[in-house]
User: Which sequence fits this backbone?
């Protein structure tokens, strides 16, 4: 249930609502917007107490949230959220997150970061702990990979995005990474989500490849509920019967999530189809549906990449996809 406060309500008014909620053993979550302050009331059968809240002078309106996710819903936070990663923003303008599937060596990361930062890319991705389907496949450089990412990120003034798989790794990720990625296979790892809920780092939450949008938003709700509202959603394709592509890009997820949630949403075009020849055409679709950005795997030599070379762009392909996308972004802004 959501309490909309009257305009110009004071901190004492907020406390009155919070205290009333506490007296019923409900939890609260306050969201102060430019126009309105909203308090989310969470607990069993909250709506049965609607009248007690309506009786408070400072309360403008009490709105039931019938959806299973509350804090990430549009009702709770009518304005779109913008996630700030130091001086960079996701949720305002169109951001690129680019870099190799895996960190392979310091030299490789240096060359790729130099190329990307020269183009103006601000977010560098790279996996250090890799969730590989086969135990025989390259598993990543682990903590050494995170150290490389941090050094290279500092040198080229780029924010680092990397996937964390295990809750016990939280302190090393907080030290080395700017945005912590939750991969598709871990979207429903609730211990991991709870741990990240206690973190101050923004989380990039990929959609599970077998998950519905509701399950995905409920995973985001876990993060929010445990205290972390810095969430970026990432559509990365879902499993269907189609075999020409690794996954099927659910482009409808972008406008749908926009309606349902205030969180920013980007699209990972490499994992979405598993094919480099589909990245550029689909980048147009991603811009057209007004996503907040895109993630693309880029490698100096995709044929030699230790993972996901088939869905990575080389430098030339990436530069042309980037320029084409940014031209389209400008055209869209003028519409
Ligand atoms: C990745 O981004 O490196 C990755 C493994 O992605 P996903 O979890 O979407 O498969
Ligand atoms: Mn990959």
Assistant:
């Amino acid at each position: 249930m959501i309490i909309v406060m009257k305009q110009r309500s004071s901190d004492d008014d907020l406390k009155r609502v919070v205290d009333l909620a506490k007296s019923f053993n409900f939890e609260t979550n306050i969201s102060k917007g430019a126009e309105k302050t909203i308090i989310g009331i969470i607990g069993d059968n909250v709506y049965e107490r609607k009248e007690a809240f309506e009786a408070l002078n400072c309360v403008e309106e009490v709105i039931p949230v019938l959806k299973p996710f509350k804090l990430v819903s549009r009702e709770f936070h009518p304005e779109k959220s913008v996630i700030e990663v130091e001086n960079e923003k996701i949720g305002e303008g169109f951001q690129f997150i680019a870099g190799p599937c895996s960190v392979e060596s310091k030299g490789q990361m240096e060359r790729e970061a130099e190329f990307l930062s020269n183009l103006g890319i601000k977010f560098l991705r790279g996996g250090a702990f890799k969730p590989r389907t086969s135990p025989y496949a390259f598993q990543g450089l682990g903590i050494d990979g995170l150290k490389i990412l941090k050094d290279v990120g500092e040198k080229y003034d780029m924010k680092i995005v990397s996937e964390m798989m295990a809750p016990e790794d939280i302190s090393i990720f907080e030290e080395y990474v700017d945005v912590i990625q939750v991969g598709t296979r871990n979207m429903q790892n609730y211990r991991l989500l709870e741990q990240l809920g206690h973190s101050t780092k923004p989380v990039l939450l990929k959609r599970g490849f077998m998950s519905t949008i509701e399950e995905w938003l409920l995973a985001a709700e876990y993060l929010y509920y445990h205290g972390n509202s810095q969430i970026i959603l990432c559509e990365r394709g879902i499993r269907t019967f189609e075999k020409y592509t690794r996954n099927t890009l659910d482009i409808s997820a972008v406008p749908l999530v926009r309606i349902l949630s205030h969180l920013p949403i980007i699209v990972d075009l490499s994992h979405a189809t598993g094919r480099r020849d589909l990245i550029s055409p689909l980048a147009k679709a991603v811009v057209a549906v007004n996503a907040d950005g895109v993630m693309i795997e880029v490698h100096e030599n995709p044929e030699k990449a230790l993972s996901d070379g088939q869905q990575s762009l080389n430098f030339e392909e990436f530069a042309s996809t980037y320029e084409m996308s940014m031209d389209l972004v400008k055209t869209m802004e003028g519409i």
Residues 77 and 155 are 37 Å apart (CA to CA).
